[in-house]
Amino acid sequence: MTDQQRVEIKEKVLQEITKTQKSIEDYRELTKPISPENAIGRISRMDAINNKSVAEAALRQVEGKLKNLHNVLDSIDDKDFGICLKCQNPIPIGRILLMPQSRYCVNCAS
Question: What is the domain partition of the chain in residue ranges?
Answer without folding.
Answer: 3-78
